[in-house]
Amino acid sequence: MATASAPPAPLPPLEGSARLWGTIALSAATFMNVLDTSIANVSLPAISGDLGVSSTQGTWVITSFAVANAIAVPLTGWLTQRFGQVRLFMASVLLFIISSWLCGLAPNMTMLIAFRALQGFVAGPMIPLSQTLLLSSYPKAKAGLAMAMWSMTTLVAPVMGPLLGGWITDNISWPWIFYINIPVGLLAAGITWGIYRKRESTTRKVPIDAIGLALLVLWVGSLQLMLDKGKELDWFHSPEIVAMAVVAVVGFAFFLVWELTDKHPVVDLSLFKRRNFWSGVLATAVAYGLFFGNVVILPLWLQQYMGYTATQAGMIMAPVGLLAIVFSPIVGLTVAKIDPRRYATFSFLVFALVLWMRSNFNTQADFWTIMIPTVIQGVAMAFFFIPLVTITLSGLAPDRIAAASGLSNFARITAGAMGTSIATTVWENRAALHHAQLVESVNQGNAAASSAMAGLAGSGFSTEQVLGQLNRIVDQQSFMLAANDVFYASAVLFLLLIPFVWLAKPTKSAGNSDAAAGAH
After folding, report:
1. CA dihedral 177, 183, 189, 195 (to 10 degrees)
2. CA 41: distance to chain centroid?
3. Where are the alpha helices (H) located in 43-142, listed in sequence order?
4. 183-208 per-position pLDDT tens digit
5. What DSSP string describes 371-427?
6. Confidence (pTM)
């Protein structure tokens, strides 16, 4: 079917209802995929308890998916050449449905982690290919709108994940967080096949780069294991962590050399020769890492030290999607006329403002005070993805879009995982430091401490209970101050990222020509 049409004639964009249904189907598949990165987060205590393991082991349910996904995403370019965009996308969706079903049936933690890794791996090509197929469905002038539709699903899904996961776990049972993928996936697959089966891309028999693939698995796996186990094993004081770090660095070095010299590399690193590609990827990855690290810390702080339930913490996080949904179509329609570098700069300034607002929180902050920055953050989200994707993919030939999208998504996913590990580690280390400093000032000479101790003792508390209460207050304060430190540092880093956006060359009417390369 695809190989017959050897000359890669540009496919005409889809029209009318076909385009609408195509957009819905591709967005539903993306939504299901992105939702699965965050839906298990709030269900971990239930899953761990049910399968009889510690909650530390439970986190492997999240990381096994992330590692396998990060490894599979950059293979998209090679797999597309071998099997064609539409066939690969269909295979990815159908295998995702099967692996979701297996996750729900898993009888023990070992099997669940194995099925989650399988689910993450087969999900790899789904996001880059949904982007590629969507761009080919729209005329060049509407490429920005296509990206707006696509990015709305990637913005709403991570917010919906914890809310939906919490509700399903409380009201039904945790396997259903995986079973809900089955109807969504079947619907997306059916519509996609109906609309896109006659729009297959040309295929070539490309030999597999087995050594490149093995090196990719080795260094990404070691890096993620190091980040996951670091906190537990006290980082570089542990020989195990040092060994993983060495394997990751050496594996990465060999991977670079091999991929740059191999005739058919599994990852097309020559894309980094393009200034817009590497500056776009760098800005996206670092910003996403910062954003994701802060997204993890806020609900942890609320639940552990501010007495919020999982549902209340989810409600604080949810409004981030509101303004993102309002502004994304506007950004999509205007990115062709306005320099995307300006939009990205504006996004980073708003992120910095939001994090600066959060750095001023105290333990008396009420629900609305904590929620306002989340609402504002929606504006930053809307101006984040579309302009940066436009910069990253600008000026690329249609046949390189899948590889470029795969590689940039790989960098983003990996940075998100690293951001989570780094942010939580810094938070705990700063909390320990603040705890030590606060304890020094709690003594008989401190009037406030003495009156608090006298007040508690007067209420009938024993000496141990008084000290326990004080320690709880000091703990709460030290983790709040540590969260403030992380928020403030992240705000500064967002400001420092702005010059990297301006390293990219201007994309003249980017939205309707270059970024839409997938559409020609």
Report:
1. -130
2. 13
3. 44-50, 55-58, 60-72, 76-83, 85-105, 109-123, 126-137
4. 999 999 998 888 887 777 777 777 77
5. HHHHHHHHHHHHTTHHHHHHHHHTT--GGGHHHHHHHHHHHHHHHHHHHHHHHHHHH
6. 0.80
